[in-house]
Amino acid sequence: MITTKPWSGGTDEEYETQHFGFGAQRFKIAVRQMVQQKISTCVTDMQNYLQEALNLNDTDKVTLTHSCAKLIRLYSERAGPSLETIDQEIEKILGVPPNVLLPEDEVQKEQVSDEEYNKLKEEVSDLRKRVERGALMEALLTAEEDELISIEKACEAAKKDLEVLDVLHKSTANTDTVKEVVRETQGLCASVPFMRDSIEADVFGNTSRLSMGFKKDVFDN
């Protein structure tokens, strides 16, 4: 098999990748893999053709298989020197000289003084504080919004309760009807003097505070 060095990366490889989209190491590995695949494919095709054309028996097939495997190893070993020459050419083509800067690295030519660095550091710190204050304000506003929503729900519930109480009051507390009953009772008592005391005791003696209040209002009027 062809000997291939594993990819190790590095500054040169990274710089070449930024410039060309791939580095010399990856390209050399790819070339060796293609050569190895081509050798294996050609020898395997030859082996299959010989087996079909010569109508070999099992023993001859085993011998042919071993011979083809040796042939693949031989071609791979003999390709080593040529591949090293190809590697050198790849390095010449893809290698970026140390005095060459990529467009995105042009900014590194300008050196930043300590004063400018400290100023930038202060600006970054100020921006970080502003972001933190903004996050805190957002949290406070969110909590306030939730509280307002809770209050609004409570008001809606109270409004519904008041509507129910109003309906109950209208259906059970009809003042005009109570006044009419009191007037009729008073007239009946006046027409039957000897029953006035007993009727008043029976009718009005055990009334509730609310009924007594209505009676007092009617008699006062």
What is this structure, in a nutshell?
The protein has 221 residues and is an all-alpha fold. The protein is built from seven helices and no strands.
Describe the structure.
- 79% of the residues lie in helices and 0% in strands.
- The protein is an all-alpha fold and 221 residues long.
- The protein folds into 3 domains: 11-101, no CATH class; 120-172; 174-221, no CATH class.
- α2 (24-54) runs antiparallel to α3 (58-94) and α5 crosses α7.
- The protein is elongated.
- The model is unreliable at 198-221 (pLDDT under 50).
Terminal CA distance: 123 Å
What general outline do the C-alpha atoms trace? elongated
Low-confidence stretches: 198-221
Cα-atom radius of gyration: 53 Å
Q: Mind summarizing the main beta sheet?
A: none
Total domain count = 3
Strand content: under 5%
Q: What does the average pLDDT come to?
A: 75
Approximate helicity band: over 70%
Query: Structural class of the secondary structure composition?
Result: mainly alpha
Instruction: Compute the number of strand runs.
Output: 0
Q: With helices defined by DSSP (H or I, 4 residues minimum), what is the helix count?
A: 7
Order of helices and strands: HHHHHHH
Descriptive keywords:
about 220 residues, mainly alpha, elongated, disordered C terminus
What is the strand and helix layout of this fold?
Elements: H1 11-20, H2 24-54, H3 58-94, H4 114-172, H5 175-191, H6 196-204, H7 209-220
